[in-house]
Amino acid sequence: MGIDFWHTTAWMDPSAYTGLARACEDAGFHGVLVSDHVLFPTELESAYPYAVDGQPGWTPATPWTDPWVAMAAMAAVTERLRFAHNIYVFPLRHPVEVAKLAGSVAALSGGRIALGAGVGWMAEEFEILGEDFRTRGARTDEGLEVCRKLWTGEPVSHDGRFYSFPTSTMSPAAPGGTVPVLIGGHSDAALRRAARNDGWIGNAYPVAEAEQVLDRLEAVLAAEGRRLGDDDFEAILGLYTRDPADFVRFAERGVKGFLAAPAMRADDIHGSAAATPIEERVAAITAFGEAVIAPLSS
């Protein structure tokens, strides 16, 4: 039974990313998750799906660094740490461009990345970038097919409903010819999409709610002839708990990764000058490594 812990860069000052990555690697974290949005309109009508009132818990001043740039920067100062998105708004971009970005960072990092893909929730962001919000799910499915073809580094072509290109080669190829694709979200459609791909990244949940989401995930995995805990399926989720026994219990159920940000506090999400300083983060990460990661690893 392996238990992997992931930190997050969400809402952090980008200048702290590399220091965070080094601290996480030293403390025994498995990886770092990076967040994604391109911009926020001043007037927002779309409801944020992970809040009861539909309101995002951050302000326009909260930083959202390009996730591929962030991954490359952190990979350059680490040797073992992995990186994934939580979550990359995949259908905002053309999949050929996504394949190029992912393949490039995979090559630069020695294959230490995964694409954490979601379909997005902010219709205004799609409108600004000229992408159809209504077809985002179908375009994600086809776009991931495009990416998987191009990551092989072989001459490939595509002729689909949304995307087409003549026989072409993309280089550098992704190490091993692919990039793992983990799907974010807990809607029925998201869980079904995750079951067809390489894994799932959930939100942060109270323990009882996490159990319910995993029940649903296991049902759609079974429909695909798969199981939670299979070697070819990686599940990552956040738990509102400080009890190591909870991590062990969920790991025994088949969850391989857990989101943990031991120094995060409310000020962080508002882009505030009072946000947790990097020194405090490093101290908390080090303490978490000693108190939780090391004992569970042994």
Q: Compute the number of structural domains.
A: 1
Q: N-to-C SSE series?
A: EHEHEEHEHHEEEHEHEHEH
Which structural category fits the helices and strands? alpha/beta
The CATH architecture: Alpha-Beta Barrel
For the record, what CATH class applies?
Alpha Beta
CATH superfamily, called what? Answer: Luciferase-like domain
What's the Cα radius of gyration?
Answer: 19 Å
Please tell me what the overall shape is: globular
Strands across the major sheet, in which order?
3-2-1-11-10-9-8-5-4
**Fraction of residues in H or I helices:** 25-40%
Number of H/I helices:
9
Distance between the termini: 11 Å
The strand count comes to 11
Low-pLDDT sequence parts: none
How is this structure best described in words?
The relative contact order is 0.16. The chain has a single domain (4-297), classed as Luciferase-like domain (TIM Barrel), CATH 3.20.20. With 298 residues, it is α/β, with parallel strands linked by helices. It is globular and about 55 Å long. Strand 9 (199-205), helix 7 and strand 10 form a beta-alpha-beta unit. It is 38% helix and 16% strand. The longest helix has 20 residues, at 278-297.
